[in-house]
């Protein structure tokens, strides 16, 4: 019985479009997958399905060898999903947004971790500016601080490095290494190549959709 | 799985249903035709003139069955919505979607015949009476269901959204039904209290025959429409291509 | 602090800060209520007859005005996704969101209504019944409105469709509510109507949050 | 094709498509109109008195329901930026946008209102005045509402201020409008009220598009 | 009198934040500028000011040696600005969006150019899908088709390559070369480096904001 995540014969659809007939892969703790493929090939769709947002059409999902449901609370609390949109309320500041997120995830009093996360992504100085007054990259940094402040074993990240500057990408790469070193897993959809030192365990290239 | 649930699942699988429903639909259509003809003959010909209303009361033989059906169809929709949401049964959504326009039509007929009947009885086509209004609202509920169901590009999303609406809307059914008891209104109270009825038997039996006829009429149409709904929903599956191809 | 309390507080605070939510319904309410006496010959006898109706229709419309976009902003900012993906109960969260909406929008209307009622020459003795009715009714309406907003959140349609979905559901509440106040003003027994309102209230509060959370999930499953 | 005509057609077309065609405003109107008799005593005598108020509140509500989000979608999708950056007249574009909104939302209501009026037992003889009033009033309300929408499109916060500014402007329109119809029904002279409405109409149509386009530009200059 | 665009002593502010005290540069026809700088340094702000959206605080702008106003119709018709948001109506298809854009720019009958633009970015097959049903990169491709279908001498592009796949970035690079070869100018804000063969005339690195 293998530990980690295993996907068997997943059928990927969006609307009436069939994106992949049968997708299978395995991911061991400490590894990460780089999803690539041309625009519209289904990277975002796959991440949505794995997060539990999208509908699972057909296929089997295993966690540590046991089959699981993406929409279960168990899966939700071990997974963090970051989409194209940053998931930040524009009217609230970065710090308030993180506190709200803490309440979503049923954490009490994560102030310290939140400070640390904001600090890590160099947003401490801007933590009380409403997110709608931040630049694109700054907003993304706040969104990434979430990954820092709240532990989760599986990250599902949809183009996490868009709008980040070079320094930001480096930070993120370090952060990802730490996460993997601690036994975490991650699936990243990205068009930009990550820094050299990060070698994905698996590269999955989705095909062009018909 | 038990014998019963196995049977149920087989029946509910769209291809199987598609095959099975064909003979049933045909049978229902004949039964409906015969019953409605008999009912109309009984109601318009054999039943005696009403001593108060003259011949005007004969509109009842259309009004009452269609009013009942307007409530019944919504209950069918709510039930299938429930089945669809809980057991994720695709067939149930198709039944609900197929029923909605039929229910709307029954409601419209009840409203129109009621209005026509209201002119001689109450001196006006329309009053803002509780039952009349709630029947009108039922009509809007049907329209809302149809609109919502068609608003989504993804049929499954539309089905499930509309199903939620149908379930919540089902609260309106008892309100329509009991409105005459809760408020003194112009509209007739319930004529049936349990199994006993205030209507004279000679007037009653054609009504009951008409009722049954309307049921079968609905049964026939709903089977027929469900068949086309599932074809639409399953248009990218193998079996539909086979069916449409042949 | 308890996460749920924190969530509730942030929602209430947000609505105050954001949008015209808080004020628009209130001003709308006052204008509509004052329109009627102005639009009619203000004979007290007639006013008294229509007063509860005016207040009720008014409250209902004012509630729906803000509800339509209850989830829209969260949907577009991607916050709603995070709601759905969080391990905490979506149902409870929805419940709190609606209640916080109610606190910010409808509660001020209820507080305002006694003044309007007097202006519309409604007998003071029926005020208690009216307020109880309004309380039960607005909560119910808020939940129903939230359901409409949830069903249409991914459709990008303006309020029309929501209103059409909702108004039929809301009508019984309106009827029972206005009726109970009228009966009370007529010195008749308003209890049965209020009991019906209460029944709808409990049904709604008990079941609709589940329906809303299902609707939200469904709208992401495209 | 002339670019302006193309723009207008696409705006109208868009709203038709998004709103599930003509049916929605119509159904909405009917539902709201039927709420009033439900909530009040449905005696024809009373109905006749409240009919113009009902129609007017109904129209105003339908107008406001859609208007609030008139520019929001375009703002969030970045389309409004392109409007402002295009070399064509923003004022004219705004004018056409509001008119297309009116055509899709309010016009069907006005066309429907004769039927409703009869349903609410209002005398036929006042119909002409009611329609003229509704025409003038809805256009004015649409422009005022659009101004509110433009002012609030980026400032998610000071919407209150706008509400306070706009609703008092909308009130006289409602009151004159409903009043003129009522006077006509009473065989009194409705002209003065209509003249006031017309004055507001011309002032609004003449000046407000400029105000709206300025407001839109300002909201980007943050 | 130099031809092209010249900026003298531009002061850059966003809200209360001073981003650059005095910025000057010149751009000749056929050249392009690559704006870089950390997150929040004011790249987007600069582009907004030059497009006429943002407010010009202080500084002089010259076009072919003559001072001009960013909010003038003249400047607007020679400039195309592409922001973070794609500026597409979600309810309309790509093709409809482009036609709407033609009407904005007062063009009559650009059907051919629009087809060509969609073709260039390989979106012909999806041209009648509502934009809201497109993937992130597909939407960006539609937005870029705009640059192809409507001529303008100055492009102001804010991170134009986000969400584009490799092929898309190549396409865009070719497109930009064509534009420059025809005497066009462009200012690009980007964190991703463009393909080698595209050497910017000038690189402007904005500093970290205080
Ligand atoms: C537009 C006007 C009318 C509408 C919308 C309407 C609606 C309805 C509805 C919904 C029912 C079924 C109630 C149930 O099963 O719970 C019903 C039944 C009935 N209606 Fe009407 N009605 C209208 C006018 C009339 C008129 C004018 C009469 C005759 C005076 C009438 C006589 C009856 C009778 C006798 C029943 C059967 C009652 C029973 O046995 O429960 N209706 N109507
Ligand atoms: N809408 C706004 N209102 C007020 N200030 C803002 C607004 N948007 C951004 N800012 C601030 O202005 C500064 C410059 O933002 P700008 O968007 O120009 O940066 P940028 O260089 O484009 O950054 P990025 O690489 O993250 O896109 C930032 O420090 C930011 O906090
Ligand atoms: N909301 C939607 N509804 C229906 N179909 C969609 C929707 N979003 C995307 N699609 C379609 O589904 C397919 C896969 O989209 P997806 O977003 O998963 O692609 P992707 O690999 O993430 O592309 P990109 O690199 O552009 O982000 C695309 O062909 C697209 O047209
Ligand atoms: Mg994607
Ligand atoms: Mg930027």
Defining key terms:
heteropentamer; B: 246 residues; mainly alpha; 2% strand; C: 222 residues; 9 helices; binds protoporphyrin IX containing FE; binds adenosine-5'-triphosphate; binds magnesium ion
Record the SSE blueprint.
The complex is a heteropentamer, with 2 copies of chain A (210 residues), 1 copy of chain B (246 residues) and 2 copies of chain C (222 residues).
Chain A: E1 5-14, E2 17-27, E3 32-36, H1 43-51, E4 58-63, E5 66-67, H2 73-78, E6 79-82, H3 94-104, H4 111-120, H5 136-149, E7 154-158, H6 166-181, E8 185-189, E9 202-205
Parallel strand pairs in A: 3-8, 3-9, 6-7, 7-8
Antiparallel strand pairs in A: 1-2, 1-4, 4-5
Helix pairs in contact in A: 3-4, 3-5, 4-5
Chain B: H1 3-12, H2 14-46, H3 60-87, H4 90-122, H5 130-151, H6 155-169, H7 172-182, E1 192-193, E2 196-197, H8 201-233, H9 238-245
Antiparallel strand pairs in B: 1-2
Helix pairs in contact in B: 2-8, 3-4, 3-6, 3-8, 4-5, 4-8, 5-6, 5-7
Chain C: H1 3-17, H2 23-39, H3 44-67, H4 72-76, H5 79-85, H6 90-119, H7 127-151, H8 159-185, H9 191-220
The structure holds protoporphyrin IX containing FE, adenosine-5'-triphosphate (2 copies) and magnesium ion (2 copies).
One adenosine-5'-triphosphate sits between chains A (14-15, 17, 19, 37, 39-45, 209) and E (133-138, 163, 165).
